[in-house]
Amino acid sequence: MANFSKSQVPQFSVEVYQNAFLPEGGREVNAIVTVTSTGGGTTGGIPLADAAPAYGAGQGPGAAVVLMVDCSGSMDYPPTKMRNARDATAAAIDTLREGTQFAVVAGTHVAKDVYPGNGRLAIADAQTKAQAKQALRKLSAGGGTAIGTWLRLADRLLNSADVAIRHGILLTDGRNEHESPEDLRAALDSCAGRFTCDARGVGTDWEVKEVTGVAAALLGTADIVADPSGLAADFTRMMENAMGKEVADISLRLWTPVGVEIRFVKQVAPTVADLTARRTEANARAGDYPTGSWGDESRDYHVCVLVPEAGIGQEMLAARVSLILPDPSGAGTPQTLSQGLVRAVWTDDMVASTSINPQVAHYTGQAELAQVIQQGLDARKSGDFDGATAKLGRAVQLASASGNQDTAKLLSKVVDVVDAATGTVRLKAKVAEADEMTLETRSTKTVRVKK
């Protein structure tokens, strides 16, 4: 069990937004669950001595980070790409908090821990940061790409640290051509729940679904850095975010009464991520959905359940949503940080039962937006231009209606917008590859509902 200082852990709150009213015979109950953590590392938190023996702040020996840098042969085309990758990794190392354990992995068709080496982690201070940056200068491009081997080495290194926060940062510029998709999937399955990982694709020769797949499986972020000169700023932001994490392994626990079926559990802000298949059983009536590490932040989740039919005037508890913090020793009772209730009430008031909660409506649209962008781009690649026009037109309509201006701007580089309100668009004859990849990579990013 890790030794933690009397730092602060965040306070968590759960708010449930829903229309609880159902018509006679109605069964589907939808709710948006907003989870907010505040006060980590500040006076707003709870001193660890007063909380359950849990995870410490992401300071000192409480955090470990492994940086995985693509060193395959394609990183030499153009030669500035490798230099930018070294500079970005150096910038990330400079951002490490003193006392954080870290390592640098050079990734090709094999993985090599180039600093500090020999399967160890270094402890960040002025000397080790300088040594790591010196090691980076020796990195050169050559070889293939096997991302699964990089992740497995990162897992071994991170698992050697007795810390709360374990995080990876992965950079690639090419497709995962030197291992099978099954090997990468097996590596992701092996690493899931053991550390979180942000993934970045540099340039335009990598596969979007591979990079976003890494981030989705390991509860991190994915993005494109089309111009390698932007890597240093992006790596600095990623590391600052990693250093801001205070609590790891928070789970969303969903308890449902007998007769209630769970249709889905999705994160819907700041990005769309379907958690439904990632449930692990907690007991006979409850299951846990992983949410990863938290700092001071707020996220939204969409919970949809089917309840048994009931008569007018009846009501029931459809689900209880709890935030669960495991005992780091694995022996004690998990701590419940906060709870919210999802209700169902049957009524003959048609206005009440047909009203859609604004939060539910907004995030249903955002989830559809992410889906139709993917479908539209896939149709475009396959030559189904009519299908692509219809799907991307619907995406423009949804982005406009929800105020998702960032996605609307990305869509405008792929289609000419005739009328955003009706979703009338024309496919552009020529689209820059970087613009198409940026839209696909960022398609799951959402905007918060205006409350």
Provide a descriptive summary of the structure in words.
Helix 1 runs antiparallel to helix 2 (126-136), helix 1 packs parallel to helix 6 (231-243) and helix 8 runs antiparallel to helix 9 (385-402). The two termini are 42 Å apart. The strands form 5 sheets. Strands 6, 7, 8, 9, 10, 11 and 12 form a 7-stranded mixed beta sheet that branches. With 451 residues, the chain is of the alpha+beta class. The protein has helices at 79-95, 126-136, 147-159, 181-191, 208-217, 231-243, 350-354, 358-381, 385-402, 405-411, 433-441, and strands at 8-9, 11-17, 21-22, 28-38, 46-47, 63-70, 101-107, 111-115, 122-123, 165-172, 196-202, 222-225, 247-255, 261-269, 273-274, 280-283, 286-294, 297-306, 315-325, 335-346, 415-419, 424-427. The chain contains 11 helices and 22 strands. The protein is globular.
